[in-house]
Amino acid sequence: MNINRNAYWNKIKPFVDKPIIKVITGMRRVGKSYFLKQIIDNLKMNGIKDSQILFVDKENIDFDFLNDYNDLNKYIKEKFKKINLKKYIFIDEIQNIIKWEKLITSLHKSENYDIYITGSNASLLSSELSTLIAGRYVEINIYPLSYREFVKFTGNDFVSHEKCFSNYIKFGGMPGIFHLEQTAETIFQYLKSIYDTILLKDIVKRYNIRNIALLEKISLFMFDNIGNLITPNSISKYLRSQKLKTYPDTIQNYLKYFTNTFIAYKVPRYNLKGKKLMEINDKYYLNDLGIRHSLLNYRVNDISQILENIVFMELLFRGYNVTIGMQNENEIDFIARKNNEIIYFQVAYLLASEKTIQREFNPLMKIKNNYTKFVLSMDSEIMGDDFEGIKRMNIIDFLKGK
Asked: What digits encode the pLDDT tens for the residues 298-317?
């Protein structure tokens, strides 16, 4: 299957051939390697020769000999020793090369290189990049398939948006699932293997975790509580019920490891009245719901949490910075910011009763500004503006980009 993810190409295109390091980040198997190859294909279409391009995949055993920055430097020099034209370097999963940042910084000083790197560890990349090449790189985050991309990947098997969205809710948006037999058993087995790889290779090995059982318990708690307030105390209480004891600092560290590897995103709460971020009681949303269901099973009763997670990831895909809104005792599901734009969102499964309608609309009605406000739900009959200009929209229509 050869389907380009053009939303990301449009983001990186203005920086191609510019003296800026292109850093592509994201969870394992979301399509970073494929995106690098898409960039290479576009370069070739514009006349760049194979001899000008170097592609290193540190997940491929053919490149096991590249252990540190000296190995990589020698390899690059050997590859390009007879090339006088501009050179294009692509390094996939660069965090697996020791002290890679020293070489990348050195190469960047020369205008003869256009550099593209990917990584699956947010903390490792950001700390090294901000220290050595601050202001000289641009980061492109790759996510699992958005719903529009999911429809495109479904291709000739598309029957209806209702059926497609049902699969999207259940299986998530990892591109690799479209290479598999479309059964729950096969897909969930594949997604579980991705989770195991991230847990063991990207967390346990990198951070020298000894108590793997504790790590797994904390991950399952987080997966089970998407969209709920999570604190070390709430996790500690859960662990005690499982006959496990640990310290708050350990819990905080483990949660950070999950966000570092892009399994989950920590979303802070924003006090609308005080106009500042709140320091405690964050929420967590998952990068891919299919992985959650491969561990906890798909549960229809979790539909409200699931829909919230889907809307959150869609907002990230569209380039918004997202926080939870707090105004006195009222909570707004999401405040989405991009440039000078602010949009408020409430997400519900169905507006089936007056009580539900009041619960979703009242917090938005109490925000006294002119920014756009949405209530998204799965109701099939959606009116236009309602409740003092608050917009109602069907979630599938929103995901389709209407």
From this structure: 999 999 999 999 999 999 99
- Position 48 confidence tier, pLDDT thresholds 50, 70, 90: very high
Token readout for 172 is: 């998530």
* Residues 6+ positions from 172 with CB-CB distance below 8 Å: 144, 191, 288, 289, 290, 291, 292, 293
The Cα 284–Cα 165 span in angstroms is 23
SS (HEC) of 86-103 = CEEEEEECHHHCECHHHH
Helix axes 303-317, 289-296, angle to 10 degrees: 150
Judged on CB neighbours under 10 Å (0-12, 13-18, 19+), 347 is buried
Query: Which three-class secondary structure state does DSSP give residue 341?
Result: strand
**pLDDT tens digits for 202-254?**
999 999 999 999 999 999 999 999 999 999 889 999 999 888 889 889 999 99
**Separation of alpha carbons 24 and 32, rounded Å:** 7
Angle in degrees, CA 274, 279, 280, rounded to 5: 120
Interatomic CA distance for residues 230 and 380, integer angstroms: 33
Quick count: other Cβ atoms within 10 Å of Cβ 122? 19
How distant, in Å, are the alpha carbons of 10, 32, 34, 97, 176 from that of 7?
5, 13, 14, 29, 18
CB environment 254-267: b (16+ within 10 A), e (fewer): bbebbbbbbbbbeb
Percent of the chain, pLDDT > 70? 96
Q: How far is Cα 340 from Cα 272, in angstroms, rounded to an integer?
A: 16
What Å distances lie between residue 92 and 26, 149, 160, CA to CA? 11, 23, 36
In angstroms, rounded to a whole number, what is the distance separating the alpha carbons of residues 332 and 375?
10
CA 121 to chain centre: 12
- Residue 110 carries which DSSP code? S
Do 23 and 140 form a contact (C-beta atoms < 8 A)? yes
Spatial CB neighbours of 98, under 8 Å, sequence gap ≥ 6: 67, 68, 69
Identify the CA nearest to 50 among candidates 62, 41, 59, 63. 41
Amino acid (one-letter) located at 381: E
Predicted TM-score (pTM) of this structure:
0.95
Residue 238 contacts residue 249 (beta carbons within 8 Å): no
